């Protein structure tokens, strides 16, 4: 069951993290991922694949790990809000392995 966002946050998007199969070291890092943990969102404005690319990363000193991206086609609004300086973050709501693919579900949050 997904973890709810705090009352001070507005859920803007619920989605899967794209590209997890392309992240070296993710299988070894996965045990550190816990549902409910905060995640960071960072724009990758110079991406040659997606004009609205938004990276999803873990947070914490020495614990930053690049998990993947917000899905293409669902990321434009979030990218525009990040570009405008809005305080966005994310939260891991569910994780599960499906063969070699780590299925990560997240909520994108806007602080009120």
TrEMBL record:
Keyword Ligase: no
Organism placement in taxonomy: Bacteria, Pseudomonadati, Bacteroidota, Cytophagia, Cytophagales
Pfam assignment, any one: HIRAN
Location of the HIRAN domain: 10-112
InterPro entries per the UniProt record, alphabetical: HIRAN
Any one GO molecular-function label of the UniProt entry: nucleic acid binding
Keywords annotated in UniProt: Hydrolase, Metal-binding
UniProt name for this protein: HIRAN domain-containing protein
